[in-house]
Amino acid sequence: MRGLTSDPGETSLVSFSSEVGPVVYPLRHALKPPIAARFSISWSRGNSLRVSGFQAEADDGEVVRGKVVEVKLGCGDSEIDHAQWRRIAYGSVSPFALLQSHKNSMAAVSKMSAVSSPYDAEWSDYVMEYSRDIGFLLGSHKLSLSVGIEDTKTVLKKVEEPTCLKAAWELMVIFYADHKSQAWIPEQLVDWLADYDSLLSGTQPTVHSKLVNFQKELASLQAIEDDDKYWEAISSALAVGWLDVAVKMLRLHGSYQLNQVGRREIENGLVEAVAVLISKMPHMRLELAPGKLGECFGTKPDFIKAWEKWRGQISKLDCSAFWVQCDHRQTREGLKNLLQIMLGNANILSSATCHWMELHVSYLLHIRPFTMGLESMNNLAQKCMQLKPVSFPHKLMTLLLGILGENTEVVLAECSRSFGPW
Fold first, then answer.
1. Separation of alpha carbons 226 and 266, rounded Å
2. Which of 62, 279, 316, 336 would be 58's cystine partner, CB 3.0–4.6 Å?
3. Is there a contact between 39 and 53 (Cβ–Cβ < 8 Å)?
């Protein structure tokens, strides 16, 4: 709520907030007392209020004067300011009105029909259209994680920082709105983590922060394959399914340099073999985003067949005699570690990930790719929380736990607490 206070020669606008208390904005209007028989307040450009003050009519019949003053309000949290919140609130009205219009039209048709409503699929399309409109309103869909192509020494490209609000909205869409992709929720969580793992870096270490820190050292490394952090970074990227990053980093290996290929042929062959296996990892989904690696399978039988064949190729390479001929210790041990990740070694997955959400995704990818249903995913999440507890859980973690636990009250409470009534 907002109010006006007035003293002789001075008028102020007072903004009341239950969280931060009253904030006083002085209005410099140069009007002579008596002030303000009437004030008019409206939104102006950006994050400003337009306050129109009118001087009270004088007894001697003097013409009434007025003054229009713009007051720039303070911002909210560091992520989304008041102006952005206002834009979101107003911008979401039209998509919501359109969704309600579709709902009312379908209800009217359903009442006129003697048979059961055939409009479930149509309604799902309307909900997804609404979800996309709101998602676009919350910010452009730019990944916080992206492979650098232009510069061979760039693992991550610097792009627009995501927001927790957009991350929360996309979680809600995955589990509540996108019914046509329910069979591919594990893969959608992989994509979600790739987009928003950087948001979790403020409260705990993450794979994203590990890659960012390694990239800072990358330019100064002469023999990158001699550095243990290089292999740790690749292992972490592979564990959470960032295949393009893992392959990109593998091909920075020194054995790919033209002046070394001849004398490091065995070493280079093993690195390339692992890179190819990573790039051929099966995915149970209809399609991948441009630039993402892997092979897609839309049905469970096809996926199972491809998965078993792929795992067989990994096991065959793991038992190859070529490892004995690989003289470079770090390369031999690093590549073997990557094979164990793809074979689902739980201990190595735990070491390669930083918090329970990353571990949860790594299990869904490499150990339990056939996990279906919220109950199974929630049980797995609880196990991962025991293995990777966090001291200061992020609000997105609390939201995901509420969704997986099918606890609507927790989900609504967390959304209201973290993002307000909207």
1. 17
2. 62
3. yes
Among 130-144, 161-175, 191-205, name the one with the lowest average pLDDT: 130-144
Beta-bridged to residue 11, according to DSSP, are: 6, 27
Residues 90-118: tens digit of each pLDDT = 888 899 999 999 888 887 777 766 555 55
Q: Which of 186, 223, 169, 413 has the alpha carbon at shortest distance from 331?
A: 223
Task: From 185, 360, 87, select the one nearest 177 (Cα to Cα).
Answer: 185
**In angstroms, rounded to a whole number, what is the distance separating the alpha carbons of residues 157 and 142?**
11
- The residue with greater pLDDT, 156 or 257, is 257
Please give the mean pLDDT across all residues of the chain. 81
Q: State how far the Cα of 298 lies from the Cα of 178, in Å rounded to an integer.
A: 16
Structure tokens at 71: 């007051």
> First and final CA of the chain: distance in angstroms?
17
**Cα separation, 390 vs 78, whole angstroms:** 24
**Antiparallel, parallel or unpaired: β 295-296 and 282-283:** parallel
- β pairing state of 295-296 and 66-72: unpaired
Per-residue model confidence as pLDDT tens digits over 63-92: 456 666 666 655 445 577 777 877 888 888
Kindly state the greatest CA–CA separation across the chain.
107
* Number of other residues whose CB lies within 10 A of the CB of residue 360: 27
Question: What sign has the CA pseudo-torsion 340, 397, 290, 286?
Answer: positive
DSSP state of 18: T
Q: Is the pLDDT of residue 186 over 60?
A: yes
Query: Please, what is the angle between helix 395-404 and helix 356-366, to 10°?
Result: 50
Q: Which of 186, 242, 106 is nearest to 371 (CA)?
A: 186
401 pLDDT higher than 60: yes
Q: Which two tokens stand for residue 196?
A: 């928003």
The answer to whether residues 267 and 326 touch, using CB atoms and an 8 Å cutoff, is yes
DSSP secondary structure code for residue 35 in this structure: P
Which one-letter amino acid corresponds to residue 181?
Answer: S
What is this structure's pTM? 0.78
Residue 422: other Cβ atoms inside 10 A: 10
> What's the whole-number mean pLDDT along residues 307-327?
93
